Amino acid sequence: MNRSRIPMIAMILVGTLALGAGAGAVTYSVAHPSSTKTVVQQVPVGSSEPAASSNALTPGEIYRQTYQGVVEITVSAPQQTPTGNQEGAVQGSGFVIDTDGHIVTNEHVVDNADSVSVKFWNGNSYKASVVGTDPSTDLAVIKVDAPQSILHPLTLADSNTLRVGDTVVAIGSPFGLEETLTSGIVSALHRQMQAPNQFTINDSIQTDAAINHGNSGGPLLNSSAEVVGVNAQIAGDTGANVGVGFSIPSNTVKSIADTLISSGKVEHAYLGVSVQEIPAEVAGQLNAVEGVMVTQVRSNTPAKQAGLVGSTGQKTIDGQRYPTGGDVITAIDGQKMTTSEEVQQAIDAHHPGDTITISYWHKGESKTVDVKLGTRPTQISP
Fold first, then answer.
1. Which of the 8 DSSP states describes residue 30?
2. pTM above 0.90, yes or no
3. Using CA atoms, how far apart are residues 147 and 374, in angstroms rounded to an integer?
């Protein structure tokens, strides 16, 4: 498994928020935790080959096949301002997924919505209701009461077939400019984004297709005119596009959207720890073993009840800070753990109430404990 490290970067959610009548546009923003480094995995994504060039559509052809399925979303919601609460208008994008009127967008676009309006390709607008939201994946489903004649569902692709270098396009309403097309490539796979509730979104797609404020919730499409991701964030501190955008993968979108439509909510399994990778090459210098060290155990969580212990110090090796003194998770249900992403994926594969077996290293001893998983809270707590 190849690993690379990149500096921790600020991530900005790309919904546009106008506060009050005549107010300027500002942005939702969220930064990663204060750690200076993050581990980003580059792992194989399957054996399927990219589409042959003779079958690949041009960006213009992709646009013409899909633009009628992309919508502009305007949300009225209470906002906190320096002068107190007032009603604001949040703007984003979305796309139709069925002929019943269900539309996928970002959770941060419709969060706390008092009303939702959807504008279609023909200029007509219709009221919509929020079916359900999931802040842990920054996804939401809304439903619009509109004629079937203007509903043009887009197809969700298998995001596991994506490869770095594949052509992709984004369609949305940056700065309110509806039906805007930008094109680029898949710059990287298996990135991690921070969700609005501070949890991590795994397997995110990095692209250099221009994504700006108002693109939130719009589709990232492959050369077959299928949705491979939902555009959600951009890197940087200014809020301007710098060619580093991030999308939630379509496989996550399909799973979450199906659950929201059927039940209105999503429950994620929860252990209650923060963790950091301990590579084999530095484990000895940290008086630890290869695995994933627990850096924090949150109160009133399954991890706390199981007796897991967080780190007590830090050590810098070759410019990288590592935790010291904590328990090191080496396996979950018998499967070796070497990265924080693997730990989260192992937890995400379960449901609240499931029991998992954690193998870990504690003060020079190998231990095993069975842990009954809880339900992830809406926000990370201390």
1. B
2. no
3. 42
Q: Hey, do 1-45+53-266 and 269-375 end up sharing a CATH topology, with the first three levels equal? A: no
User: pLDDT of 53-80, one tens digit each?
Assistant: 458 999 999 999 999 999 999 999 887 7
- 1-45+53-266 architecture in CATH? Beta Barrel (2.40)
Residue among 54, 56, 93 nearest 222 (CA): 56
Chain position carrying tokens 């501190």: 237
Percentage of residues in the chain having pLDDT higher than 90: 74
Q: Which residue blocks in the chain are alpha helix, DSSP H?
A: 59-66, 107-110, 250-263, 280-283, 302-306, 340-348
* Residue pair 340/276 in contact by the 8 Å Cβ criterion: yes
The residues annotated as belonging to the active site are: 108, 138, 216
CB atoms within 10 A of CB 174: 23
Please state the length of the chain: 382
Give Cα 195 distance to the centre of its chain: 6
Question: What is the residue whose two structure tokens read 């700006």?
Answer: 212
From residue 275, how far is each of 39, 132, 266, 365 by CA, in Å? 11, 30, 24, 19
Q: Which residues contact 200 (CB under 8 A, 6 or more apart)?
A: 192, 193, 194, 340, 344
Cα Rg, the chain, nearest whole Å: 21
Which residues lie across from 171 on neighbouring strands? 181
Token digits of residue 335:
């499967």
Q: Which residues contact 73 (CB under 8 A, 6 or more apart)?
A: 91, 92, 93, 94, 103, 105, 109, 110, 116, 117, 118, 119, 128, 142, 217
Phi, psi of 338, deg, nearest 5:
-125, -10
Task: Report which of 227, 93, 63 is spatially closest to residue 155, judged by C-alpha positions.
Answer: 227
Question: Which tokens is 144 given?
Answer: 């619009």
pLDDT band at 15 (very low <50, low <70, confident <90, very high): low
DSSP assignment letter at 41:
E
DSSP 22: T
Look at residues 316, 350, 313 and name the one whose alpha carbon lies nearest to residue 333. Answer: 350
Residue pair 169/62 in contact by the 8 Å Cβ criterion? yes
Q: Of the candidates 205, 210, 229, which has an alpha carbon nearest to the alpha carbon of residue 105?
A: 229
Q: What dihedral do alpha carbons 46, 51, 53, 55 form, nearest 10°?
A: 180
How do the domains of the chain map onto residue ranges?
Answer: 1-45+53-266, 269-375
CATH architecture for residues 269-375: Roll (2.30)
